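Lecture notes, unit on protein representations.

Consider one protein chain, 466 amino acids long.
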Amino acid sequence: MAGGFIQSIGDMAEALTNPFGDNTLRLGVTGLSRAGKTVFITSLVNNLLERGRMPQLRAQAEGRIDAVFLQPQPDLTLPRFDYETHLAALTGDNPHWPDSTRAVSELRLSFRVQPGGWFAGWRGPGELHLDIVDYPGEWLLDLGLLDQTYAQWSDEVLTRLAKRPEGADFLATARAEDGALPHAEDRAKLLADRFTAYLHAARAAGRSDCTPGRFLLPGDLAGSPVLTFAPLPLPGQTPRGSLWREMQRRYDAYVSRVIRPFFQTHFSRIDRQIVLVDVLEAVHRGPQALEDLRRTMADVLDAFRPGRNGFLDRLWNGRRVEKILFAATKADHLHHTQHPRLQAVLRAMVQDAEQRAAFRGARVEALALSALRTTVEETVTRDGLTLDMVRGRLLSDGRQVAMFAGDLPEDPARLMASARQGAEAWLDAEYALMHFAPARISRKPGEGLPHIRMDRAAEFLLGDRL
């Protein structure tokens, strides 16, 4: 009763303070490599169109959503998110994972919704346009470079590489280079190629802090000088025309002509944001991978402009991200009894950043979900030991297998302490991970793709605007 009264007061306040009735909400969707952005958007759109599996979406539970439909996207210069092709890949006779995100794309969903609360009898149905903006997480991490000079970035990267075996080849090349010598394009290209090879190796090893992101996903910039630079030690002198000065010039161009336009055109206009995180992969790879991911999540949240997105803020300060959801994906790889622990690990990773965002008026939540459920649960007893497992179809060869991933600790501090201390491996536990293919899906009319907690994610991200 009290919660409904408070919500009604909030509805009235919104109506009085927002007389122009902004009915567009821009939702940014990003995530680090292989976190499942394409599948998430496909499932979100499908489950908003066919809402039979969305009981936690309050407007749907109250029967206030009259219709939801796809509309032409407002920005005609952006590629359209290929929803239909991705849905066909997941639901065909031979279901498979769709191609991953490689550039910015957009899709618009429009809602016709009956008002709730005190306004139910005062006004007719309203409309909400949801613009979903999909962009690679690798590009998001680049926003941190806006506040770094080339010298600062080089020093940070080279210090990081000294602790990583996959960085040994490039580090040796960089340290052998004399940046004070005249620039030679063949040397610059060799350095850039070896640095790019390191970034690919680091990503394959489960590293999360792989910047610059366009080196991994260059798009139409492939081969251009703006992607032909690398970190170098600062020499005693940096004369004009030197290799170091040319690397600095290209880094500055990358920041001003690649990162800043992306921020101004797309990122700074986002109202709500979801960041998809493959926590299970990091836990599987060990403490150092988990610590890399924790630091990256802090950098990600620092890149946002969190805060209340009031009417006057939009006029004078531009939009601010008012809600951010961090989602641990692939929850279907664990038995449901482990989901609260997975969510607790993610919450522990973003706790510091969450408190800073809350101070600025933004809301940050952590949630364990699966955009497409690929497994079924089963309990197996072996040698008197009962194990809660999941069964699915292996991505590698299609075999049906059962997996027990290991017990995540009830207290996530046990994992985080080992990660921050730089441990090489978990001392008292092992965590397995298998990669599952999509299962064949049988759906009733009105049912979207099978999922875990997508309705809760939707309620957090847009429920208040419905």
